[in-house]
TrEMBL record:
Protein name according to UniProt: Xaa-Pro aminopeptidase
Keywords assigned: Aminopeptidase, Hydrolase, Protease
Recorded GO MF terms: aminopeptidase activity
Domain Peptidase M24: 157-373
Record has Zinc as a keyword: no
A UniProt-annotated Pfam family: Creatinase_N
UniProt domain Creatinase N-terminal: residue ranges: 18-144
Length: 393
């Protein structure tokens, strides 16, 4: 367990220096980033995104600058943001926010300025006005730097996995307690609320300093036919004996996410329920074994999903094998047909094949995986064997 979720200043200094090397390799003098996850990655400043932008400018020369609204300047300093803080008065104001960043950066310094595809058209126009002499170059240099996690980040992911496993246990226990009491089974919404309380209370009880992000702990809960819709939101539907239900959970420790998902069967399973679940379990096992350094994401995805296709269930596939995880629950690279990014040691990805049978249920198993030097290992550890997910009624 961790006393603090905040990463040390030395780590931010190291990753900023590494990013400068990457900038040089791309022929860039500086990079500008305004996505909240990029801002947090580069400086350790976490904030609630709104109409008032927070922007980082990292240059080959000079200090790293963090532009924030004046009303968040003290908050950035309290988080020990690893940058020189530049505050602007209000938005909208007499001048656009990026004007203040350009003035602080000495606009003539950056000849080639990188920006990510997340930048809005309006924000890009502000950058052009603030850095009139710079050539703007679209670049994913920050996102690519985020692919491989440092040991300190891995420790945060591991703690998020511990809490996610506890939430899975808590969700199942709530159902089992209701069965023992002989009353009504809980609804999807009631299970989701209970799980969220367990996750957040555990985090605050075990950590002296919690990094608050928009999604701290909890997830989706769906049962029966509702679970055949991959991202359905929890409803008032109460679980029923014979149904399949899914706990799609996760949390963020120090802003680093983990997800863990399990499908459960309530009561004596049917032959179809066993067939569907075992096909997904085998695909997840094979897909996990395919995750190793040098393997293209698209190839791992093909190997994983071919198990389901070979089982004659390909018509029930609705999504890829998985995706990258870090400061975002879903981020690049993508374990998908369209992404040939080679996996590398230190990446964290989800391994979550699933099938969805309309009118019946969905079946999905997910573990967050750390790519190692010779394979991959799951952060989450809740059991996934068939006998482990059947809840007697």
């Amino acid at each position: 367990m961790l006393d603090t979720q905040r990463l040390p200043a030395a780590l931010y200094a190291a990753l900023q220096d590494d990013l400068r090397v990457a900038l040089a390799a791309e022929g860039l003098d500086a990079v500008i980033a305004d996505h909240p996850d990029d801002v947090a990655y580069l400086t350790g400043f976490f904030h609630h995104p709104n109409e008032r932008p927070a922007v980082v400018l990292l240059s080959q020369e000079g200090p790293t600058l963090l532009l924030v609204p004046e009303l968040e300047r003290e908050y950035a300093l309290a988080q020990h943001a690893a940058a020189e803080v530049v505050a602007y008065p209000e938005f909208p104001g007499l001048r656009p926010p990026l004007h203040y960043l350009g003035a602080a950066a000495e606009t003539g310094r950056a000849r080639r300025l990188g920006y990510s595809g997340d930048l809005t058209v309006d924000r890009l126009d502000q950058v052009r006005a603030a850095f009139p002499s710079a050539t703007l170059v679209r670049s994913e240099v920050v996102m690519h730097a985020r692919y491989v996690k440092r040991p300190e980040e891995v420790a945060l992911h591991a703690e998020a996995a511990r809490i996610t496993d506890l939430m899975l246990v808590a969700g199942r226990a709530l159902v089992e307690e209701a069965l023992s009491a002989g009353g009504s089974l809980p609804s999807e919404a009631e299970i989701a609320a209970h799980i969220g309380r367990v996750g957040t209370s555990t985090m605050y009880a075990d950590h002296a300093e919690v990094v608050v992000v928009s999604f701290l702990a909890g997830g989706l809960v769906y049962s029966g036919a509702n679970s055949a819709r991959p991202h359905a939101l929890p409803s008032g539907h109460r679980l029923r004996p014979g149904e399949t239900f899914m706990l799609s959970l996760g949390c963020a420790v120090g802003g680093r996410f983990v997800e863990g998902e399990r499908t459960f069967i309530l009561g004596e399973p049917s032959a179809d329920q066993r067939r569907y679940y075992e096909a997904v379990r085998e695909a997840q096992a094979v897909g996990g074994a395919a995750l190793r350094p040098g393997v293209p994401c698209s190839e791992a995805n093909r190997i994983c999903l071919d198990v389901i296709r070979d089982a004659g269930l390909g018509q029930f596939l609705r999504h890829r094998q998985g995706h990258g995880i870090g400061l975002g629950m879903h981020e690049a690279p993508w374990l998908s047909d369209g992404d040939d990014t080679p996996l590398a040691a230190g990446m964290v990805v989800s391994n979550e094949p699933g099938i969805y049978i309309p009118g019946h249920a969905g079946y999905r198993i997910s573990d967050s995986m750390l790519i190692t030097e010779d394979g991959a290992r799951p952060f989450t550890s809740y059991p996934r064997a068939f006998d482990d997910i059947v809840i007697p009624v």
